[in-house]
Amino acid sequence: MDQQAEDAALDRRLFIAIMQAAYSGELAAAHAYRGHWRSLWQSRRATVRLGIQAIEFEEWHHRRQVGEILAELGSGPQRWREVLMWSIGRFFGSLCFVGGWFGPLYAAGRLEAANVGQYEAAAHHAARCGLDRFVPQIEAMVAVEDRHERFFGDLVRGHPLLPLAASVGGWRPPPPAARSLRRAEPVCCLLLPSRPQRREHRCESGAVPQLSPGSRTPTMATTPAGGGKARGEALIREPGHLTAPAPAGPPRQDEAIGTQDPPPP
């Protein structure tokens, strides 16, 4: 019994130590990513810039979560580590302005791989010392950090310098994972532009009014021949939810547009 208590106490100390390191590590990562996305000022890098900016937001979010866990356990960050990690993050963030694009992306992928292992170890020690209530939250962090690693891995995969960097740094991009259409939205969806869904309405003619970008006034477009649309079943596409066209036939006077949702597939 005493041995079990000692083991639990050791796991608790290790868990707190890992979370303290993670708390300051997120500070370094956030500052490094801030410098990284700011260095991508070219328009052709706009998509990557948005992705790294969203990752920076998620690192700040993880730091808040880890800080709350430490506070609940009666602990807190280590000041010397905070100063060190702040300096490291700002230093590597500034290097992104003078180096090429491959080096920062590879370093970021290697960092995220280390974060995955760090949070996995934290979840292991939390489960062993009776802090099971933190395990689901930490496992969610593992999933986000894994997504970050794959993001950077996809960007450097196939680069001619990757074999040399992997032999020195010891990290290779993970294989691309199949993306599910029903995955929960990540935190970074707050920063990335959303894609509006489509809503379809009936009209009486054989033309298809479509919304041009930035406009709420539909423009007319002719349906292609043999497109599978019977007369009286042309569609209006607008942002919103998808609705099915009503059966063919003369519309009622009070029927302007269809409003019923389609049955689930």
Question: In words, what does this structure look like?
Answer:
The chain has 265 residues and is mainly alpha-helical. The chain has two domains: 2-174, Up-down Bundle (Ferritin), CATH 1.20.1260; 195-221 and 230-247 and 257-261, no CATH class. Helices cover 52% and strands 8% of the residues. The chain has helices at residues 2-39, 46-72, 79-95, 102-128, 135-156, 162-169; strands spanning 198-203, 207-211, 218-222, 234-239. The strands form two sheets. It has a two-stranded antiparallel sheet with strand order 1-4. It has a two-stranded antiparallel ribbon with strand order 2-3. A hairpin with a 6-residue loop joins β2 (207-211) and β3 (218-222). α1 (2-39) runs antiparallel to α2 and α2 (46-72) runs antiparallel to α5.
What's the domain count?
A: 2
Structural class of the secondary elements?
mainly alpha
Q: Tally of extended strands?
A: 4
Question: What is the mean pLDDT?
Answer: 75
Order of helices and strands: HHHHHHEEEE
Distance between the termini: 56 Å
Give the CA-based shape.
elongated
- The number of helical elements comes to 6
Biggest sheet descriptor: 2 strands, antiparallel
CATH superfamily of the largest domain: Ferritin, core subunit, four-helix bundle
- What is the CATH topology descriptor of the largest domain? Ferritin
